[in-house]
Amino acid sequence: MSKTLEVTLLGKEYRVACEPAERDALQAAVNLLDGKLKEAAEKTPTSARGSGERVAIMVALNLAHELLAAKNTPEQIAAALESETIQRRINSIEAKLDESLAQHEQLF
């Protein structure tokens, strides 16, 4: 069986190296990318499209951003939330200490 797959992105055909076992996953990636490219091309003025390179770069940047955002594991999110919670508690304790010290200063 061939180790390449013919794909179409924005109406242009490409031959991509691909193991037979990975064809479905690659085709799903092609479908996602083609959809994003078409969506971006529709939003980009014709004069700014040029060869399509600008559209492709912007789509790649958006997909990279989405990938990095998706890589935030629940543990990382929980740690960030815990850090925020701890900081709020520290701020609350500091405020109570300041209030208490202010009351004691009035006694002397």
Main β-sheet: number of strands, strand sense, barrel status? 2 strands, antiparallel
- Domain count, please report it: 2
Strand fraction band? 5-15%
Distance between the termini: 91 Å
Q: Are there runs of 5+ residues with pLDDT below 50, and where?
A: none
The CATH homologous superfamily of the largest domain corresponds to: Cell division protein ZapA protomer, N-terminal domain
Structural class: mainly alpha
Give helix and strand order, one letter per element, not per position.
Answer: EEHHHH
C-alpha Rg (nearest Å)? 27 Å
Residues in helices, as a percent range: over 70%
What strand order characterises the main sheet? 1-2
The number of helices is 4
- Return the CATH class of the largest domain: Alpha Beta
Provide a descriptive summary of the structure in words.
This protein is mainly α and 108 residues long. Helix content is 71%, strand content 11%. The chain has two domains: 1-71, Double Stranded RNA Binding Domain (2-Layer Sandwich), CATH 3.30.160; 73-108. It has helices at 23-43, 46-49, 53-70, 74-107; strands at residues 4-9, 12-17. Strand 1 (4-9) and strand 2 form a beta hairpin. It starts with a strand and ends with a helix. 2% of the residues are buried.
